[in-house]
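pinging the channel bc i need a second pair of eyes. not urgent but kinda urgent?? the chain im working w is below, pasted from the shared doc
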Amino acid sequence: MSVPTDHDLDLSVASMLRFGVSLAALVVLIGGVLYLRHPFAPIPDYKQFVAGGPELRTLSGIYDGVKRLNARSIIQLGLVLLIATPVARVVFCVIGFSRQHKPLYIVVSLIVLAVLIYSFTNGAV
């Protein structure tokens, strides 16, 4: 197995980012279509912001809603995928840098990954 060049790593990361954003957009689009499929439903009052329920704030709640084809849960899943895309980019970079044998870049990428994971796990209220 040959060592990938920087150009190879750039191309693979760009492809992964393109795929992640496209997948997230497709999931949000599907959720949006499902959300708008009831033209005779009562019109929501958007003058006052009301946060989504607790079922939209946890991954397990989102997963349960997606299984029931709940439109809001599907839209939320798309947003979670969009947020996960840059995290996957950092993981891709760690793997790529380790294949290139660049220890400084590996350490920096692992620090970034640790900060991301810490902020996701401890930043939620």
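so The chain has a mean pLDDT of 88. and Residues 6-122 form one domain. — does that match what u expected or am i reading it wrong
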